[in-house]
Design brief:
132 residues, mainly alpha, single chain
């Protein structure tokens, strides 16, 4: 199975942002009446999407499905479960926040140059992203 590199992963993220992120933000703004771009409800719904959909949809989000890639456990090649996705999204997000984004930049470089194409969040959760 071929590892998914930087550009295809970026493309999947862009599709997810357009197809899911923008509508979630608009819905949250309509519900709360708050048109601030940092609406917590939209962020929570987005995090739930990023955690639950891959856990129940064989490692795919809508963007990953469009791009033909998926997340899987590194050691067993099985789809990720909720615990794995919590590690990948929440714990990795905390690491990226604590390092003021430096961890994210390191992850981008890792995906671009490492042969296995794994980022920090992949190492934290024990996952990899592969072509379907």
């Amino acid at each position: 199975m071929y590892k998914a590199g930087f550009w295809i992963r970026l493309g999947a993220s862009i599709f997810d942002g357009i197809i899911i992120g923008l509508p979630l933000m608009v819905i949250a703004e309509l519900i709360t009446g708050n048109f601030d771009s940092d609406e917590p409800i939209a962020q929570i719904l987005s995090a739930l999407y990023s955690i639950l959909l891959p856990a129940f949809w064989n490692g795919r989000t809508i963007g990953k499905c469009i791009c033909g890639i998926r997340i899987r456990k590194y050691d067993t090649q099985e789809p990720p479960g909720i615990r794995t996705m919590l590690m990948r999204v929440i714990v990795a997000g905390l690491v990226y926040g604590i390092t003021f984004g430096i961890g994210f930049i390191v992850s981008v470089i890792m995906v671009a140059v490492r042969e296995d194409k794994r980022a920090l969040h992949d190492f934290i959760a024990g996952t990899e992203v592969v072509w379907d």
